[in-house]
What does this fold into?
Amino acid sequence: MKFRIANSELRMTPGRLAKNSSFEIRHLKFAAAFTLLEVMIASGILFLCLFAILQLLSSSLRGARILQRTTVDAGMRAGEL
It folds into this structure.
């Protein structure tokens, strides 16, 4: 099995590593993870987009509700009497 990490190569044999095992394993663990700052920025962007979509949906529903309201005019009132 081969893993390529930033121009270095790690070869694994069944049960053992062919190179310096402790350095390569640590390097592999850190290369595959996101930093806390990256996760926080991605979360902020995600929540910003979600709230923008929710605001757009809310205003669209409010507009549709306003369009559905009927106004009472004199002819409708006279028809009820």
Q: What stands out?
A: Residues 36-68 form the longest helix (33 residues). The first strand starts at residue 2 and ends at 5.
